[in-house]
Amino acid sequence: MKCFRNINELISDIREEKSKSCRFATRFILVQGCRTWDELVAKLIHEVDRVVHLSEFCDGHDVFPDMTKLQYYLKEKILNCKDVLLIPLAECIRLDPESAIIIRSLAEWPAEKIRRLYIPLLSINESFLAEMDHVPRYEEGLLPDILSIEGEGDCEVVVAPFHIESEDFLIISGIKEYLSRWESSNVNKIWLQTDMAAWLPKLRLGGRCKVCIYPSPFDYVSRNANWEEVREEWGSSENWNWLATQMREEESLDSVASRILNVADYNSQQLFVMWKNLDERKRWLVWLWSKAKSNPDSYLYHVIEKSNSVSDFIDNVIMAIFSLPKSLSFSMERKELLKLLGVTVMPPEFWKQYDELSSPLERIAVLTDLSVTEREKLVSSAGELLSSHSTALWWDYLEVAFPKLTWYLGFPSTDDEFADAYFFAYNRCRLIDRADDSLHDLIDKWASEQLLWNYQGRSDIVAKQRSNGSKILWVDAMGAEWLGLLIKLLTMDGEVECEVMLARANIPTITDANKEWEEDEEVIRDLDDIAHHYAYTFPQSFLKEMELIDKLAIKVQELLSQFSVVVVTSDHGLSRFAAISKERVDPPQGTTVDSRGRFAALQDDVLSENYDANTLWVLVNNVICLLTHCRFKGCMASPGEVHGGAAPEECLSPVIAVRKAGVEAPLKFELIAETIKLNPKGEGVIAVRCNRAIRNLKLQVAGSSLKGQEAEALTWEFKLKGWKAGKYTGTLYSANRNVGEITFEAVKGFIQDDLGL
Q1: Helical (H) or strand (E) element with 71
Q2: Domains plus CATH for the chain?
Q3: Is the pTM of this model over 0.85?
Q4: Please, which of 57, 378, 501, 718 could form a disulfide with 402 given CB 3.0 to 4.6 Å?
C-alpha cells in the first residue's frame, strides 16, 4: 500500500505512473475523510477522459446499480477513453456489503481499452481488504499498488423507509438520487429514504463515515426509545410510520410523546381527559406511552398488560375488573377511565361475566352509574346489601359506583328525631321496594301519637319566605325523601348553603287542597307524572325520579344567579308503600272513598262528631285520611306511588331555603383523638375541634348520619353506638353544606394510652 501525505502528492504520483505500461488498469484509492474525498474527486476529474457515474446504472429511482451492465459498459462501450474515474463505489458497498464482490473483478481489470481505471473508496478499508484477500494476484503481489490518503471530515448516513422532519439532515429519496448526490460532493448528514432499507443488513458501520440502517419505522422507534419490551404488534405499520416521522433522532418516547401531546410529562389522568378530543393516532400514542409508563399499582397498568393493541383497550378497561382482586381503588380508577373514554353501554360479554358473580358486594365492585342498566343493577344490589350486610362492608364501593344513590340514602339532619329516623328508614326501604319492620314500627308511632300535629303548616312558612323577597319554586309531589340527594347536589361545590324545614301539607294531600302558589310562581310537575304513570316499574321509574331531582338542582343554581334566596317546596309527597300495600281496611260508614284509597270524604248528611280519633286515620275538614300505609277497600290498583293520605312521606313537605354561602374564613376541623376507643357494646365518642363557631354539625360515615353535640366552645362530639372496629372516613356537614372530612380508627380493647405507655 502506497500512502500519501496530501492530495497534490498523490496526483503527482498518478500523473507520473500513468505513462508507464502495466497489465492491469485499476488503481484503488483508499480515502479517509469526507473533505479529502471532495478535494480528491474534484482533482481526479481533470486527470481522466471520462467519469463513470454509478447512478446511471440504476434501472429505477430506488434500486442499486446493475453491476453486470457496469462491467459490460467498461468492457464494450467505452471508446477513445484511456483514463476513467468510477464513483461512488464505496457508497454502494456501504449500503449493500454484498456488492463489494465486484472489487475482485475490478482489481484484475485488463489495461486494454482502458489504460487506467481510478476507483476512490471512502472509508471502507476493512470491506475492501476483505475482498482483496480473495484475489490471488493481490496475495502474490502481482497487482498495482493500492493508494491511500488520510484526511479530515466525517459524515453520517441514516437509511430508513421513511424520513423525519429535520434541519440537520439532507433528505434524499431513493438509491439513485443518493448515489447522484455523492457523485457531486459529500454531505455531512444524509437521510436516505428507501424501500430497500427493509432488506439491507442492520450492520451499522462506524469510522469516519457512520451509517445507521433502520429496516422499519418500528425499528427506529424502538432503538431511539431504548425500550426493549416494545413489540411491533402493538401498532400498525401506519402507526409506527407516523410516530417515527415525528421522532427526532435519539429522542426518547417520553420526549416525543410529551411534544406531540403537548404535556409536560406522563400523567394518565391528564392524558385520558384529552382522549375524546384526540385523533386515532394520538390515542394510540397515549395507549403506547401508558404501556411504558403506567403505575404497576394502578388499574390502568393491569388493563394495559392485557391489551395488545389500542383497538382492544376499551374492552379490557371494561373487562379486566373481573380477573383482579376486589379493590376500591381499582373500582374508582376503572369508573373514571370509562367516563373519560365515553363508555355508556356495557357489552354482552360484560353481563355474561356479571351474571356469574354470586355476591352483591362483588357485583357493586364492577358496576358504575355510567349506563342505565348498571344503575338499575346498583339499586337492586344496594337493596340486597341493605337487607343482609353491614354498611361498613360495602358503603365505600357504592359511593364510588353510584354516589347519588348514597346521597339519597344519606338523609340530612333536620333536628327532628322522628323525621330523621323515619326517612332514613323509608329511603332504605325504597331500595328493597318493601316496608320492613323498622318502617312499620315508625309509622305505627306516627299514627298512634298523631305526630303530624307537631309540624307547622306549610302555608305560614312559605308566606313568610315570600314576604322576605325569596323566589318560591314549587315541585309537585316532591316529598322529604329527596332531601339528601337534592341538598348534596346543591351544596357539593361548597358555594351554597341550605336551611331545611319540614312543614305539614294540607289534608288531604292532593294538589287541589294544596294549591298555594301564586300566579308568577313556577310549578314543576314531572315527579307526579312519573308516580302516576300506568307503566311505572321499579327501579326504572325510581331512577327517572332521581334524574328529575338532578335537573331540579341545576335549575335552582340558575335561579340563584338572579335571586339571593330560592325556596324549594312542594304541595305534597308520595308514598310507594301505600301504593303497593296489600292491607285494605273498611271505610267508615257514610263516607265516599277516593279512587286512590288514601282518604274518604264524609257524605253531606253525616256529622263529623260521629268519628272519634283513630290510630288508623285523622279527620280534617270532613275528610278522613289514613295515617299508615293501608288503603280503604274499594280503591283502584296503583302500580306506582300514591298520595292523598297522611303518612309522613305524603304530608311532610320540605321547605328548603337555598342561598349563596357567606364569605367567612374557611372551616377547619381537627380530630382531638384519631383513635376512638369502643366499649364491648361498640360505643364510643368522636370529638372534633372547629376553628370558629358554627350552628350545627353532622357526620356522615359508612352510611350512617350522626348528629353532633356541642360539648364546649368550638368542640363537637358524635356518639357511636354498635360500631365495629376498623378505619373510617366520614364527611362533615354544617348548614347542610360539606365542610370537611375526617379519618379515624375505632378500636376495641386496651391501647397503649390505657396502660400509661
Answers
A1: helix 67-72
A2: 2-150 (3.40.50), 435-660 (no CATH), 669-755 (2.60.40.10)
A3: no
A4: 378
